[in-house]
Amino acid sequence: MDILNLFPVPVIHRNIANLIDQQTLNDMLTTISKSDMLQNQGKNLYTYNRELLTTDYKDSAITQEIQKTLEFFVQQIYGEPNSKIRLTQSWLNFNPPGTNHLQHNHANSIVSGVLYLSVNDKTGSFKIYRPSAQQRMVIGKTQEWNEYSSEFCRFTPVFGDLYVFPSTVVHGVDINESDITRVSLAFNSFYVGELDNSPLSKLTL
Predict the structure, then answer these.
(1) What torsion do the CA atoms of 63, 88, 99, 160 make, to the nearest 10 degrees?
(2) How far is CA 177 from CA 37, 116, 151, 156, in A?
(3) Mind listing the pLDDT tens digit for each residue in 170-204?
(4) Which of 43, 45, 175 is nearest to 98 (CA)?
(5) What region does 102 belong to: left with phi over 0, alpha with psi -120 to 50, or beta?
């Protein structure tokens, strides 16, 4: 008997800690003031500035590596070797002790991601949830959890962990049970150039 894994959700996970320059990281964190932040329902703070990687840090090793990963995602995973994609939005998230990051996805984006800059094993797990179209109709009877029965996958990130995924993917972060503020850098992307060359649906961005 074969079990066919049909239409899996692709998520890239890699660690780029060796590319994070400490001076760049310090500058990025110290230039943010409380007046530059907004707060969501989970009391997660995030920067009003949504262009961190495309303005002040556009030439940083972090930005260049994220851009390469985005290109790999659409060209290799999505099978679009001629597609061009670029970073559009990027911002910092700050989760003080006792706060969380509620379930959400990213609108107006193709591929999104998060890079962890300040974490430990108690700052909260990163969770990716099962797509709504694949949710089970009856729950509560499961006794063994696996990739087919679980409603979410949980990861414990370390410094420099980078996760890249389709922007439609619902994700969130558990409550920060540590005594430090969890810091992450999130980003979105979108296509550049011609999306289709057919007469009826041709679009150039």
Answers:
(1) -20
(2) 22, 16, 22, 13
(3) 999 999 999 999 999 999 999 998 877 777 777 78
(4) 175
(5) beta
**Is residue 13 within 8 Å of residue 62, measured between CB atoms?**
no
Residue type (1 letter), 158: V
State whether residue 43 is helix, strand or coil.
coil
Split at pLDDT 50, 70, 90, the class of 123 is very high
CA neighbor of 66 nearest in space, from 198, 205, 162, 173:
162
pTM: predicted TM-score of the whole model, two decimal places:
0.92
Residue 99 three-state SS: coil
- Which residue spans within the chain are E strands per DSSP? 12-15, 37-39, 45-47, 84-95, 101-104, 111-118, 126-129, 152-155, 161-166, 171-173, 182-192, 194-196, 203-204
Closest listed residue to residue 55, CA positions, set 92, 89, 93: 89
Tokens standing for 94?
């700050």
Q: Which amino acid does the sequence have at 9?
A: V
